[in-house]
Amino acid sequence: MIDRPVQKSKRIDELDLFRGFAILGIFMVNILVMNVSFLYRGEWEAEHIGWLQQASFFVLENLFYSKFFTIFSFLFGIGVAFQMQRARENGRFSTAFFLRRFVVLFLLGVAHILFIWAGDILHLYGALGLLLLVFFRLPPIGLVVSAVLVFAFPFYTPILESFMQWIGFDYAAPLAALSREEILELKHQGSYLSGVHLRLKEYAFVMSFVYSGIVPVAFTAMLLGGALVKAGWLNNLGEKIRQSTPYVLISLVILLIYRFTLLFYIVPNFKVEDGTPLSIFLVTLYQVSDLSISFGLLWLVGTLWRVRLMQRLLSPLRYVGRMALSNYILQSIIGYLIMRTFNGYEVFTPFECILIVLAVYTVQIFLSKWWLQSFRFGPLEWLWRCASYLKLLPLCRS
Question: How many distinct structural domains can be found in the chain?
Fold first, then answer.
């Protein structure tokens, strides 16, 4: 039955491992956004010029930025497609169930934005999940073609800008009206209600980046995840990872060469106007390199998992992955406490932010392992299931 957890014998260890890995990478990116306003990120980065801080920026930009939300989206697509597949096999597929599931996720994301942190992705996943109900009816090749079309469409930004002008909403103005000092004061001394208002301004400020940048890439990754499930890759995932090794390595080498050529040669030496066909081509290829790195990181983790020694080292990540939703929200709560309650906003350097992430994630590993010894699901996973099935499901292990 689909209201039961996947039996341990049927769980795919790599997927729990990948989710745990994704949660680590997402927090590595989010902690910087929690530490300094997106509006003044450039100024803040310019203030940290030491070699250690520059090395931290280099690692974060090339291994983490725009990589792990893609990984998380890919895994979300796999999870949704896998659950739909199991439901159909059991003769229990219910459109109403999945509609409730995605609406609840959307509302949880909205609450996350209002009460904790503006950088939520859950509301996007809830909204995109409704589209997956339609797209996941396609065969694998149809999903791949759809993913390519969604990814390659070049006019998301102009369409969004035109719509905002039509409704007369300047999404950047509310936050842009605040100076860096005013934001700093609100973060350190503002009331909780002022924090809610500030989070809404922060969310509005990044709308263009989110809806014309993150959403298409996230949906592309979800479609590819669904295609993988429909093509039967989960039946022997470890072997499929081994077979894909030469293709992954070749594409990674080619796209990494392009990526660094663009960043360190083309951009500094040539002026390419935004919106031109050449600019669109270069940016699209750069995004392809980001996708390639994202999947390359998953391939690397999956390959290391096949080595006995590395399997022991990586195994604890599965505990975090089995409670990915709870751990994602927990990271936001901890970030809120550090940056607002304990006045850590703009206090930490990039390297110190990395250390914070590693410390918090280590604690999450032990907490997740402890929790799963007594309970079948993470707390938020359980609440999500109960709301999806409209009944109280057992939480404690029998």
Answer: 2
Q: How far apart are the first and last CA of the chain?
A: 18
Where does the pLDDT of residue 9 fall: very low under 50, low under 70, confident under 90, or very high at 90 and above? very low
pLDDT tens figures, 226-235: 999 999 888 8
Whether 151 is in a domain gets the answer: yes
Per the CB < 8 A criterion, the answer to whether 116 and 333 are in contact is yes
Nearest to 14 by CA among 309, 238, 293: 238
Residue 396's beta-bridge partner residues? 375
Residue in 323, 318, 333 with CA at minimum distance from that of residue 383:
323
Q: CA–CA separation, 145 vs 371, rounded Å?
A: 41
Domain extent at residue 251: 244-294
Span 317-328, average pLDDT: 97
Phi, psi of 155 (to 5 degrees): -115, 25
| Cβ count within 10 A of residue 397 | 9
Most confident of 218-227, 242-251, 258-267: 218-227
Query: Residue 309 domain-assigned?
Result: no
Residue 225 · residue 136 · CB < 8 Å: no
d(CA 38, CA 32): 9
Q: Is the predicted pLDDT of residue 247 greater than 90, yes or no?
A: no
Asked if residue 279 and residue 255 are part of one domain, the reply reads: yes
Q: Are residues 167 and 198 in the same domain?
A: yes
226 and 277 share a domain? Answer: no
Same domain, 230 and 248: no
Q: Who contacts 365 (Cβ-Cβ below 8 Å, separation ≥6)?
A: 316, 317, 319, 320
Side-chain half-sphere CA neighbours of 190 within 13 A: 18
Residue 321 CB contacts under 8 Å (≥ 6 apart), including other chains: 15, 16, 17, 18, 19, 20, 21, 22, 23
